[in-house]
User: Fold these one by one.
Assistant:
Number 1:
Amino acid sequence: MSVTIKSEKEIEYMRDAGKILAQVHEQLSEIIEPGITTMEITKKGEEFIRNAGAYPSFKGYEGYPEAICVSINDEVVHGIPCEEHRLFEGDIVSLDAGVEYKGYQSDAARTYGVGKIDEESERLIRVTRESFFKGIEYARAGNHLYDISRAIQKHAESQGFSIVRDLCGHGIGKVVHEEPAIPNFKPWFKRGIKLVPGMTLAIEPMVNAGTRKVWILDDDWTVITRDGKKSAHYENTILVTENDPEILSL
Ligand code: MF3
Ligand code: CO
């Protein structure tokens, strides 16, 4: 499938889905505390999504079993919730959620500290979030896609962190993953497609404290850093307009 340009009507649905997802993340942020299991987090998240009249898009997506991806410390993304994994004081935890509402998708992720965390972890979370905002400054009609990628990379690397290259952001609409793929680094000698109003994009920097290299666990989902250092994730679904981008999931 190629890059889709959404109509006004479709944009309304994308806004509704985004609003619901923003609220789900608000609700999830309040249950993050030492002692909670990752299974309890996804169950709560699923309840929040369904209570809003939406559907948890990740559940069953290519066989992924739960509503919320919960990734702790050196887990970059796609951690699978389970009864045995608990949050401890000092951990950082990334929550990635997707909702479908009236046939349209929204995708967003946040990383939180659990209780009191060290300054370096605090900085990793902050820089990852900042990288997203630096990136979307370039999400404007007439710019090229990799202008966003370059700005994300520049900020994260200037702060001494590394950008995961094996996973990307993506277009989003009726399905979670549409074209184009959106790397969080600038591919050599390429500018990417030209941005057009009506494009909806999930921009999602994944930033590592140490090496950018990752492994995938035997569960075929969980992505971890090769050096065991921490990783943070921050994502929103945005709309490209004639002017500033609209952040749909915030
Ligand atoms: N937000 C994730 C991404 O864009 C989607 C996870 S799919 C799931 O890669 F199956 F893991 F839930
Ligand atoms: Co995504």
Number 2:
Amino acid sequence: MAIDPTSPVPKYTQLRDHLLDWIVEAGLSVDDPVPSERELGSRYGLSRMTVRQTIDLLVAEGKLYRVPGKGTFVARPKIEMPLALTSFTEDMRARGYEPGARDLARRIAPAGKNTARMMGLPPGSPVHHIERLRTADGEPMAVERSYIPVSVTPGLDTYPLSGRSLYSILEEEFGILLDSGEQTIEAGICDPADAKLLGLAHGSPVLSMQRRSFANGKCVELALSTYRADRYQLHSRLDPRRPGGT
Ligand code: 16G
């Protein structure tokens, strides 16, 4: 396997593809070390800078991770984001992780114009703002910012959320069963504050989610969330093509 210097494909991209193939061929599994940058440089006849660029890319993609002073290792496969109205707690438990939440902020404030419009509320209606850092086995995975109308959940601010699922409180304490929802997912760059919370390098890629959840036609939650792009990916089944392609 060699790098083709005449190819229009940049050398660091060629090395990325070689390395990914090699990891499979060599039968490496999660947490196994990959060769050092120096070794890869001499193996492929590439400069240390090019090798570093490739490793940086694979780390940002969530395929490898670095441990300072120890080396670079094969990362766990990404979590497939469910395209369903599941709660973080349910989803993590179903995958065998222990879900967690750290309260970052909680307050009641009047809904701004945009929030009110998106939630179908009169502007200025009181809404709960709930900001949480979500963790799986203690590892930060996402920052979630939820807006919930006080009118449907009076007193929600008195329930601790650290050890409890928000959706189960809605169900058990307020009798609210979310029955429909919609979600927009965009690629984004982590802002410095969220990067710190999520343990990411500045400028790391993230998935920005905007979810509206409804019960009986009423919007109960507007959630603006930042998920680590190195730990999450989207997967969806595709509808079959219709004859004629329309
Ligand atoms: C999911 C939802 C979030 C909701 C949370 C409740 C997204 C992408 N996800 O993470 O809106 O607040 O579940 O989880 O928006 P909980 O019941 O574990 O607190």
